[in-house]
């Protein structure tokens, strides 16, 4: 892993492309960096939405991480299958997912499950289900701290909702959850200033609740861009996700973070249709395409501009296409790794230039067994 071309395979002949390669030494570095930044594994609740993979969960468990966050019932079940002790479904369950959430609690009693809530109707539905099954459901109140995607605004309605949670005998009110994924300022000082201002709305709500006798047990906060700031707060569980694999997007935006790109795409040249154009087998089906170009950072190609992408193809305009033959391999770090991982059934595990294993992306679909 200390080679100049750390990402390169010694032999690519039998590798089906596109392939997503992962490097366990660098994943371990990222896990240990997270723990060091947080001041201990007990202060972490990392998200598994990026990797969705049992082997990476197990690497974190081996390093002392016991609390996790996830986005789907399948991810929650995968965590339970790995014997994760504490699992937060960071999505308010609705529809049939309410029943599925309680099925998780029943099937995996050794794991402690919790979920988010931000509206009275869902609180009532969860409470009623808990009562009917003679269990207590653990819930965090999701706060809209500025992203305007999910959560309840931290106003008098939030005070009322949390007090209802706290007073409900069918509910264990765990505390407040606040995701601030909208904060992505590249300059560290400004990013911290915006993060602190956003988080102040959460702490103010906590103080208001506690001033009238309603205790707030804990807070789960942040994602990867704001992880360095939340990691230093007392009484807060920081919940980064992309930090496990990292990507070119966050690596470029936040160069001060010492995480390493632990996932690399391997793709081949399949055509040279014109004097300045080459085409790779890296289409929408294998690379996240929700952002503008560039969508990858090529590690072994220069003077090429990313021009187009379709279902199976990725088109580059290069100054000298003669430098690249049909069949040549390119290595590329995705700009956005999270949705890219979900496009692959397996991650190809690389050590010392060889593929040594294949890890199933076990929670990429909606369902495992529940």
From TrEMBL:
Q: Does the keyword Secreted apply?
A: no
Cited SMART domains: D-ser_dehydrat
Q: Which SUPFAM superfamilies match?
A: PLP-binding barrel
Which keywords label this protein?
Lyase
Residue span, D-serine dehydratase-like domain: 262-351
Q: Which domain of life is it from?
A: Bacteria
A Pfam family this chain is assigned to: D-ser_dehydrat
Q: Which family does it belong to?
A: Belongs to the DSD1 family.
Designated name of the protein = D-TA family PLP-dependent enzyme
Q: Which organism is it from?
A: Pricia mediterranea
Print the organism lineage.
Answer: Bacteria, Pseudomonadati, Bacteroidota, Flavobacteriia, Flavobacteriales
């Amino acid at each position: 892993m200390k080679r100049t071309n750390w990402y390169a395979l010694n032999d690519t002949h039998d590798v089906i492309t596109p392939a997503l390669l992962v490097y366990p030494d660098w994943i371990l570095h990222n896990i240990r960096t997270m723990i060091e930044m947080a001041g201990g594994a007990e202060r972490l609740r990392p998200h598994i939405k990026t990797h969705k993979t049992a082997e990476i969960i197990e690497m974190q468990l081996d390093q002392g991480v016991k609390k996790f966050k996830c986005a789907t019932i399948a991810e929650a079940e995968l965590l339970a299958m790995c014997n994760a002790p504490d699992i937060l479904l960071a999505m308010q369950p609705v529809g049939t997912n309410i029943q599925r959430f309680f099925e998780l609690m029943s099937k995996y009693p050794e794991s402690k499950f919790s979920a988010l809530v931000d509206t009275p109707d869902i609180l009532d539905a969860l409470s009623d289900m808990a009562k009917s099954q003679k269990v207590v459901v653990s819930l965090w109140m999701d706060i809209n701290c500025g992203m305007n995607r999910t959560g309840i605004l931290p106003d008098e309605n939030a005070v009322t909702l949390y007090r209802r949670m706290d007073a409900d005998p069918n509910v264990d009110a765990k505390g407040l959850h606040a995701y601030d994924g909208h904060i992505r300022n590249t300059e560290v000082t400004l990013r911290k200033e915006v993060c602190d201002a956003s988080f102040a709305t959460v702490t103010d709500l906590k103080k208001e609740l506690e001033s009238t006798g309603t205790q707030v047990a804990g807070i789960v906060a942040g994602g990867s861009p704001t992880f360095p700031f939340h990691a230093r707060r007392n009484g807060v569980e920081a919940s980064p996700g992309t930090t496990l694999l990292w990507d070119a997007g966050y690596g470029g935006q936040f160069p001060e973070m010492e995480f390493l790109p632990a996932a690399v795409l391997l793709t081949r040249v399949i055509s040279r249709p014109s004097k300045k154009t080459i085409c790779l087998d890296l289409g929408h089906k294998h690379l996240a395409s929700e952002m503008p170009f560039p969508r990858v950072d090529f590690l072994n190609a220069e003077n090429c501009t990313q021009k187009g992408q379709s279902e199976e193809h990725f088109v580059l305009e290069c100054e000298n296409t003669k430098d690249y033959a049909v069949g040549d391999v390119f290595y590329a770090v995705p700009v956005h790794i999270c949705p890219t991982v979900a496009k692959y059934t397996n991650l190809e595990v690389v050590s010392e230039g060889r593929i040594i294993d294949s890890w199933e992306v076990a929670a990429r679909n909606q369902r495992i067994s529940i």
